[in-house]
Amino acid sequence: MKLSVALLLPVVICVPQSAFAQSGITAVPNRPTVSTTAQPVQLGVLETEWGVDAASSHQDLNGLLKFGATTNLELRFANNPITADSGAHGFGDVSAGFKYRLTSDHDGQPSIALMYMFKAPTAGNLLGSGYPDNSFTLLVSKDVGKHHFDYNLIGNLLGTQNGWDHNFLNA
Q1: Residue 139 Cα distances to 49, 59, 77, 160, angstroms
Q2: Fewer CB under 10 Å: which end of the chain, C or N?
Q3: pTM more than 0.70
Q4: What's the rounded Cα separation, in Å, for the pair 139 and 114?
């Protein structure tokens, strides 16, 4: 725990004070849906989300920290501090990565962003795969009146004992 505080402290100290002089902060939640919006967290804002997944054979507490490093760059850290799967329980996997917005939603143009996440196999092979994974995501978001639309296209490079497997998921 001391290590994670020590790693976050330099990031918080390096943020210019003008980043905190915003007149209003708008949340950019990923919940309650399972899609991810292309809009990043505002500059200088640290946003957190927590949730619970529960099914008959798998349960976990999952968290996500998002930090607005620039107006278009969001740093992300995700973890499952508590995971239970088919009778085994313990610490889940940890992921880190970023989201970078290429275009902003205006007029007829949607917001478009790219996201990369690296999963470290901290859960081991009993509660996780035991191998590192890489996820590459194209994010497209558009506001139309009071409605918001998200489209996510995800490509995964899943670690195996023989290198990388390929799995593509369109969400």
Answers
A1: 19, 27, 18, 27
A2: N
A3: yes
A4: 6
